[in-house]
Amino acid sequence: MTVSTLYRWPASAHLGRVVPKTKFYEHGTITKAVRDKFVAEVQRITWAYKLADATIHLSATEDVPEIQVFVIDAKTEDVSDAVLTAIDKAVRMPIIFEINRGQGSDETARMTATHKQATVTLKSTASYYSTDWIRTDAERSALPTAINLPALYGSLISPLLPIDPRPGERLADTAIRIADARKLERNIASTERRLRNEPQFNRKVELRRELRDQTAALDALTSPTRSDTDDAVGKDAIWTS
């Protein structure tokens, strides 16, 4: 599902404000390990664009009052999710990140984001979705057509997802499904290691049965069709605009 494109952000939404890294240390509790990652990985953080009713004339909602675009210039090959989460938790609005690395003809960038609502506290285990690394001199795409900011937000994140959204599925439901699938993938890897190292035949049979059940559950989670037991609660925007 992941695409290789960066967006041509509207000039009317441009801010271009450099934000000191220390600003993010002031919000909440940031561990020394995360602060060290800021120092080691981040060269500069720029609040680049603000997508809002006042700047691009799309109506807002309580969950998506604005969409911020932050550009991070990396000192190293990438910026870790722990740094992105710290920034996301310090800024109430949904954020789209662009991470730049390299210089000159070797400069590349990737767009990344997690599903976030202004009315919900972001979890420390938030999952980030990303494009591939793209040359910064490549042609950028126009923003997706949308009727409001929640629909735009969904259209920006949807192509980043590792699995296809189901028809009519809400953004939060897809994000939960992806998080559950990643947890199951870790459990499957653990079960496979235990199976390889288990010397007892009877226990191997049990582990194979467990592995089959986990694999079937993962297939159900990543299926493009909704099961009869899927719940459709929640009020955030669906993927389509």
General description of the model:
This protein has 241 residues and is α+β, with helices and mostly antiparallel strands. It has helices at 22-25, 32-41, 53-56, 81-90, 149-157, 171-197, 201-222, and strands spanning 14-18, 42-51, 67-74, 95-101, 108-113, 129-130, 134-135. Helix content is 36%, strand content 17%. Strands 1, 2, 3, 4, 5, 6 and 7 form a 7-stranded mixed β-sheet that branches. A hairpin with a 6-residue loop joins β4 and β5 (108-113). α6 (171-197) runs antiparallel to α7. The longest helix has 27 residues, at 171-197. It is globular. The two termini are 18 Å apart.
What can be said about the biggest beta sheet? 7 strands, mixed
What is the N-to-C order of secondary-structure elements (H for helix, E for strand)?
Answer: EHHEHEHEEEEHHH
Radius of gyration over all CA atoms, rounded? 20 Å
Which class of secondary structure composition applies to the elements? alpha+beta
Quaternary: single chain
Task: Kindly report how far apart the N and C termini lie.
Answer: 18 Å
Query: What is the number of beta strands?
Result: 7
Principal-axis shape: globular
Number of helices: 7
Helix content: 25-40%
**Unreliable residue runs:** 229-241
Mean pLDDT over the full residue set = 87
Strand percentage lies at: 15-25%
Would you summarize the structure shown here?
By secondary structure, the protein is of the alpha+beta class. Helices cover 36% and strands 17% of the residues.
